[in-house]
Structure formats: C-alpha cells, structure tokens
Write a structure and sequence with these properties.
- The complex is a heterodimer of chains A (about 180) and B (about 250).
- Chain A is mainly alpha-helical.
- Chain A has helices at about 5-10, 15-30, 45-55, 60-75, 85-90, 95-115, 120-145, 150-155, 160-180; strands spanning about 35, 45.
- Chain A has one domain (about 10-175): Arp2/3 complex 21 kDa subunit ARPC3, CATH 1.10.1760.
- Chain A is built from nine helices and two strands.
- Chain A has a two-stranded antiparallel sheet.
- In chain A, β1 (about 35) and β2 form a beta hairpin.
- In chain A, about 55% of the residues are buried.
- Chain B has two domains: about 1-120 and about 220-250, no CATH class; about 120-220, no CATH class.
- In chain B, about 75% of the residues lie in helices and about 0% in strands.
- The longest helix of chain B is centred in the middle third of the chain and has 30 residues, at about 135-165.
- Classes of the chains: A mainly alpha (about 180), B mainly alpha (about 250).
- Chains A and B meet through α2, α4, α5 and α9 of A and α5, α6, α8, α9 and α10 of B.
Chain lengths: ~180, ~250
C-alpha cells in the first residue's frame, strides 16, 4: 500500500498532491518547534523540511510554502519561536520567510527541469538555499540601514554550516525513501 | 508544544457573523490608510478606531496578546528609525516624530489584521477563498495543513518520548553527536507522516474527490444587510480620513 509511486507521481494524482503539500506545510510549521542546540545558532528543522519538500514535490513545494505563510498570517504560531502574524513577515527576519517561498519555487523548477537526477537534486538544493539566504540577507540589511556586511555576519554566515548539514540529510532521506518503503 | 492551537475561538458577536469578504474590504481600506498617512495623530486615530470593534467582538484579551507579541518588533522599529533619522537629518524632534509614527503605523496594521483573523473561522475563510475564485485545491490544502499541524507536533512529541524510553539521550555528546541523536526522531516522523498523508489521499479519493468538474457547496456565504452596512461604514471612514488630508493638508 505504501509505495514510492505515491511520492514520485505527485503530478498524477490530484488528491495525493493536495495531501502531500498540506503535509509539508504542516511539517515546515512543526520543524520550527524542533530545535537542536548547535553552535553558534540553534538549528531548527524548518529548512530541512523545505529542502525535502523541494526534492519530493518539485515545483509544488511552492504551494506548501505559500500555505505555510498563510497559516502564519492567520495567526497560528507556526513561525520560529512560536510567533505568528503579519509583523513577523514584514519584520527584520521576514526576508527568510519570503525566501522560503521563492527558494521552494526556484529549487522545485530546477529539479523538475533537471529530471530528478542526483545532479539536478544537488543543483536544486543549492538554488533553494541561495534564494532563502539571499532574500534573508538583503531584507535584513534593509532593516539595518543597508549595512550588508553586518547582515551577512549576523544573519547568513552562522547558519551556513548547519544548513549544509541539513541539505545533506535531506538528500540522504530522499534517496533512502524507497528503501523504507514509503 | 502545548500552546499549539488555533487563535480562533468560536464567537457569536456581530463581527463574527459578518461575511469574511466584507471584513476583507475593511482590512484593505484601513491598510491603505495606515500606509498613506505619516502623521502620528491620524495613525493613532486609525488604531483607536479598531478598539470599539475589538470590544464588540469580545476578543480584547487575544487582541492585546497579539499586540504584546509584536512589542519586540515595535521596539526594533522605534530604535532603528530614531537612530537612522537622527543620523540623516540631525534633528532630534524629526527623529522622534518619525519613530513614533512608524511604530504607530505598525501597531495599527497588526490591530487591523488581528480583527480579521480573530473573528473569522477557518471554515468560513476556506469557503470565502473558494467564493473569491481561488482554486478549491489551494483552499483545501490550506484547511488540511491547519489540521495537520497539531497532529504532527503531538506525533513528534510521542516519538521523542518513545525513543527516550529506549535510552536515547537527545542532549548528549558533542555537536555532531547531538545532531545525529535527532535522526531516530526524524526518520519515524517522516515515514509516519507520509503514511498519514497517503491515508488522507485514499480517504479523499474514496469520497470522490475530483470526480466532478464543478463542485457545489452545502453552505454558501451570502452578503446580508449587515455586511453592506459594514462596508458602507468602512468606506465612509476611509473617505473621511482622506478628506482630512485634502482639506487640512495633514500628511
């Protein structure tokens, strides 16, 4: 009953696509709550689930992220540190959340065009990460009076080692899914 | 994770019973006002104009909480604008003026948005999304994701407890070991949630999801006299505020 085709043929079945997109929106929200102590900033599983959504859903990862942001706007405490609302989105760290949206679309298109090969998967993860951190970086520096280097040190560089780890883990999980019989 | 829940609580006030679309019009009109004006007095008036609605709707406690929740951002905006404006103009009065109005603008925006979302049920929201011609798939995904969130966070907690009872120590070892400790939590969570998603998809198909091109609803939202009155009042307030700008020349 639990077969790989379910995930791989997300284009084929409308109900599966809807259910999986909803699942990833919810996982991204739950990921903000699971934090792992890591130097210099705690890791949350949020970007891990975004990377996994890009690999599994392709360009439909965009839908799951749009829904995730929608849930935050409605007032569910789905953003990092249990926050919610319009304020988080326009606040200093809002660029990362917008970046989830842009990154999932760009990464998803890359893997869809690249035909789900290993190379396309790595390229899509890179594209997604560049979008997330690029948006976050520019947005944060806008709030810091366009001080790009300060924003880079405060908001981008500390997260990079952790995100490289999470992207690697997402790749491993994605390759292992058939073996686990999902 | 215990605080996880819907902000929305069922209510019976006039504001709760309004059509979401009429509340959306109010939200859009007043958002334009807050972005359009710089004068702190006008922004304060816009902020205060939402207070009677909050009291009528009986959501004042949660409204206060959403304002309090964004205090960090308000402080950030205030301090940043104070420093930034003092740096560029060199006048303390100007800097304080701008910082106060930016903070008030932000508070007014939060207040207007929270009225909409605190008084609109997720079901009404989905239904109004469908009636605003948003594809049903997206509206349904939205509703389904909202139901998935509490389930998933509970499941994550159960898996963590189960692995702890088998001797998994999450807060042990160096950085890389700590990250590795989370893998026995993560993998069961992913697998079980995929299985759940597949069951949901099967349930949807067995209920003939997507079988017919045109989908009809049992409950249809209709605009009543109250809704048109509400829209009229919002529009009147909007035009009054605009005329302040034109007649008195207040920025």
């Amino acid at each position: 009953m639990f077969n790989l085709a379910f995930i791989m043929r997300t284009k084929g079945s409308r109900s599966r696509r809807v259910a999986t997109s909803a699942l990833f929106a919810a996982l991204t929200a739950a990921g903000a709550w699971i934090s792992i102590p890591f130097f210099p900033v705690p890791l949350t599983l949020q970007t891990f689930f975004i990377y996994l959504a890009v690999l599994i859903l392709g360009r439909y990862a965009f839908l799951s992220q749009a829904i995730y942001i929608g849930m935050g706007l409605v007032g569910l405490p789905v953003f990092a540190r249990g926050m919610s609302g319009y304020g988080v989105l326009v606040g200093p760290t809002g660029g990362f959340i917008i970046g989830f949206l842009v990154g999932s679309l760009v990464g998803g298109v890359v893997i869809d065009v690249g035909g789900r090969s290993n190379f396309a998967a790595i390229a899509s993860l890179l594209a997604c990460a560049v979008c997330v951190f690029g948006m976050g970086w520019v947005w944060l520096s806008c709030w810091l009076d366009w001080n790009f280097s300060l924003a880079l040190w405060a908001g981008v560089l500390p997260f990079l080692p952790g995100d490289a780890l999470k992207a690697g883990l997402a790749l491993v999980v994605w390759k292992k899914l058939p073996y686990w019989g999902v | 994770m215990k605080a996880f829940g819907f902000e929305y609580k069922r209510g019976t006030s006039v504001i709760h019973k309004l059509d979401p679309r009429s509340k959306l019009i109010y939200t859009i009109l007043f958002t334009i006002l807050t972005v359009y004006f710089v004068n702190p007095l006008v922004l304060l008036l816009v902020l205060l104009s939402s207070v009677p609605m909050v009291i009528v709707a009986g959501v004042s406690k949660r409204w206060l909480r959403s304002i309090r929740g964004s205090l960090f951002f308000i402080a950030f905006i205030f301090v940043f604008n104070l420093i930034g404006m003092f740096w560029t103009t060199g006048s303390v009065a100007d800097a304080i003026f701008i910082s106060i109005s930016m903070s008030l603008r932000f508070m007014a925006l939060i207040s207007i948005f929270s009225i909409f979302f605190l008084t609109t049920s997720p079901e009404d929201l989905t239904q109004s999304m469908v009636q605003l011609k948003i594809p049903y798939d997206y509206a349904l995904t939205f509703n389904m994701a909202m139901r998935f969130v509490p389930t998933l966070s509970r499941e994550a907690q159960i898996i963590m407890d189960a692995q702890r009872s088998r001797g998994l120590e999450l807060e042990r070892g160096n950085i890389f070991q700590r990250v590795r400790n989370y893998i026995p939590v993560l993998i069961p969570l992913i697998i079980s949630s995929f299985r759940r998603a597949e069951l949901v998809a099967d349930a949807m198909e067995s209920r003939a999801f997507g079988a017919t091109k045109r989908r009809t609803s049992l409950y249809v939202l209709t605009m009543g006299g109250k809704d048109f009155l509400f829209i009229f009042c919002s529009l009147a307030a909007f035009l009054t505020f605009l005329s302040i700008k034109i007649l008195l020349g207040i920025q």
